[in-house]
Write a structure and sequence with these properties.
The protein is about 25% helix and about 30% strand. By secondary structure, it is an alpha+beta fold. The protein is elongated. The site of dinuclear copper ion (CUA) has 7 residues, from loops.
C-alpha cells in the first residue's frame, strides 16, 4: 500500500503529540520536585486535640520580638480562641486545625484564606500593622450553622496588649494564691 508523504508527516506529528502528552502527565505525577500538597504537613489525630501541645489550649504565643503564633481550632460552629488578640506591628502565623469537618479560615481584608482539614494543620501568616479589627469567616460549607461561624482578629496597641497579658498573668497567679490566701489582690476582673 502506498502512503502519501504528507500522510506520513501528519502521522509522525500525531505520534509526537501523544508522546508529549504522556510525558507531561508522567512528569506531573512523579517528576523531580513534584509533591502533593499535604506531603510536608504535620498530621495529628483530630479526635485527640486535647492531648496535643498546640491545640489542647488554643491561644496566642509570642515566638519572637514581633512574632506571634496563634493556635486556632475551627469547629462546628466557631473558632477558638475568639477573639484572637495580637499587638500592632506584629507578624502572626496562624496554625489552624479542625476536630470535626472541613472548615475555612479567612481573615477578611487580608489575603489569608485557607481550608482547614481535620488531621492537618493549615499554616498562614498575616502582617498585623495598624490597630484594627478583622472579621474571620468560615468559607467552606460545614453544616447547619455554617453561615453563623465567624470570629475576630483584634490588633490592639502595644500598651493595651501588654496590659491585657499582665492581667491574664495576674489572674492566673491570684487563682493559685487564693487557694491559701484570700486577701491577695485578685485584680479587678
Ligand atoms: Cu465552618 Cu462553615
Amino acid at each position: 500500500m502506498h502512503v502519501h508523504a504528507y500522510e506520513k508527516i501528519w502521522l509522525a506529528l500525531a505520534v509526537i503529540l501523544i508522546l508529549l502528552l504522556i510525558g507531561s502527565v508522567t512528569y506531573g505525577a512523579v517528576g523531580p520536585g513534584v509533591a502533593m500538597v499535604s506531603d510536608q504537613q504535620d498530621t495529628l489525630d483530630p479526635e485527640a486535640l486535647d492531648e496535643d501541645d498546640r491545640f489542647a489550649e488554643p491561644r496566642v504565643e509570642q515566638v519572637g520580638e514581633n512574632e506571634y503564633a496563634a493556635y486556632v481550632v475551627a469547629y462546628q460552629f466557631d473558632f477558638d480562641p475568639d477573639p484572637i488578640v495580637v499587638p500592632e506591628n506584629s507578624r502572626v502565623t496562624f496554625y489552624v486545625t479542625s476536630p470535626d469537618v472541613i472548615h475555612g479560615f479567612e481573615v477578611v481584608g487580608t489575603n489569608a484564606n485557607t481550608m482547614v482539614i481535620p488531621g492537618e494543620v493549615a499554616e498562614i501568616t498575616v502582617e498585623a500593622n495598624e490597630p484594627r479589627e478583622y472579621g474571620i469567616v468560615c468559607n467552606e460549607y460545614c453544616g447547619a450553622a455554617h453561615h453563623a461561624m465567624e470570629g475576630k482578629l483584634e490588633v490592639v496597641p502595644q500598651a493595651e496588649y501588654d496590659r491585657m497579658t499582665e492581667e491574664n498573668d495576674e489572674a492566673t497567679m491570684s487563682d493559685e494564691a487564693s487557694m491559701n490566701d484570700e486577701s491577695d489582690d485578685g485584680g479587678d476582673a
